[in-house]
Amino acid sequence: MITIKEKYNNSNKFNTYCEKILNVIHMGDLDAYGKRGVEALRRATPKDTGLTASSWVYEIVRKKESVSLVFKNTNIQNGVPIAIILQYGHGTNHGGYVQGIDYINPALKPVFDDLAKEMWEDVTKL
Fold this sequence. Notes:
Elements: H1 11-24, H2 27-44, E1 56-63, E2 66-73, E3 76-77, E4 80-81, H3 82-88, E5 89-91, E6 97-99, H4 104-124
Antiparallel strand pairs: 1-2, 3-4, 5-6
């Protein structure tokens, strides 16, 4: 996440610049990265039945002062988000423990790295 804090007397110029930055972030670009992220997560998700791997979705959330690209997995069994217990591990009904597998972070890192690089290039052109 990128956070900008302002300490200038003339905040109008700074606010205008920040608004330009938000306008540079094109929804189509985020849509492409969302699709790319879903595909990366689908490929990286450990498969038993394949339901969790095929349950990845993304959402672009645009607020007045921010834009977020959010990845979610819709496979929830008995209130338990399966993608999360695969990532972090979980206890079993018989007192055992299943170790988690860090598959989400490695899958999304190249997507976020490319997104950050592209956004930085666009912002520095302003």
